[in-house]
Every structure is written in structure tokens, then in C-alpha cells.
Amino acid sequence: MEEPLNNEVLNRELNIVFQYLVKKGVPHLDAQDAVQETAFKYLTYADSIRSNKVRSWLIRVALNYFYDQCRKNKKYILNFEEDRVGHQVEELPEFIILAKERAEEFSRLLVSLKPLYSELLLLKYESDLSYAEISQLLGISISSVKMNLFRARKSLLKCFKEAHYER
After folding, report:
1. Which domains does the chain have, with CATH numbers?
2. Which pLDDT score, from 0 to 100, does residue 8 have?
3. Helix residue ranges, H only, the chain
């Protein structure tokens, strides 16, 4: 029997899950609903979850909840156009615009990849999950995660080069 996370650690993990959902293109309100439902399920089943697997468990529950809601409502909206650039007063407008354009370009490139590749890239580089956590989350072997991440990076680079050489 594992000891449940304290409130501060749980809130930090849930914030990471929320940021992951938003980066994946889930609208803010849907992401908030998914995180709230995930928190409830965590509190209900906390004694049966291994403490070293909490983040991957939270992400998987939140994604499953969101996908279930999409199926129930028959909507599949991934909002990659949403503003993800942190606006600070001291930033120049040029930097804000360039950062927003880079984020939009990255989102377009992610959409052009296979869904598995985009999910792997987001899990590894946006959520900073280890290969083992990604493996457990997606239910595939660690070697498969490494191989598919290699292919995803290669595919992303190819799409990036094609987008810039076609101009």
C-alpha cells in the first residue's frame, strides 16, 4: 500500500498534467474538467497507485477522460492556435510575435506528424517524462519508445525542412 501524495505535490503534478493537455491542444475548459476529474479519481484510488508512477497515471486518466468526453459529445477539437506565449511587460513586441509564430509553426508541424509521434514528442519534451514513464503510460516497450521517438524527431526535422525549402 503506497502513501498518497500530499496536497502540494499533488497540485504540482496536476498543474503539469494541465499544461500537457493544453500543449496537446485541449481547450482550457476541457483541460480543467479533465484535471478536476483526474484529481477526484486520484483521491479515490490513491492507495492502489505506485508513487513512482503517479504522473503517468494522472496523464493517462486525464487523456482518457478527455477522449471519453469527445466521444460522448462527438467533438474532436484540438486547439493548437491558442495563445501559449507568456506575455511579460519587459518583452518587446517583436519577440512576442516571433515566439507566437514559432509556436504556431511547431503546432502545424506536430499536426502533420503521425498521432503517436506528436504524442511522444509532447510527452518527452513538453512534459519531461522519462522513457520508462512514457512506456508505462502508452503501454509499449521502452525500446519501442526510443525507436519511435527517434523516428518522430527525424520526421519532424523532415517536415521542418520541407516547409522552409518550399518557400
Report:
1. 1-79 (1.10.1740)
2. 85
3. 7-23, 28-45, 54-73, 93-112, 115-121, 131-138, 142-165
Residue with cell 518522430: 152
- Enumerate residues 6+ apart whose C-beta is below 8 A from 32: 18
> How many CA atoms lie less than 13 Å away from 74 in the CB half-sphere?
0
Greatest C-alpha distance within the chain:
58
pLDDT tens-digit series, residues 116-140: 888 888 888 877 888 988 888 888 9
Could you tell me which of 98, 111, 137 has the C-alpha nearest to residue 23? 111
CA pseudo-torsion sign 52, 58, 59, 63: positive
Type of residue numbered 146: K
> What is the C-alpha to C-alpha distance for residues 77 and 155, in angstroms, rounded to an integer?
24
1: confidence class by pLDDT, cuts 50, 70, 90: very low
Give residue-wise pLDDT tens across range 62-73.
888 888 887 777
CA separation (Å) from 69 to 33, 38, 105, 118? 10, 13, 28, 21
Question: Residue 167 and residue 158: Cα distance in Å, rounded?
Answer: 15
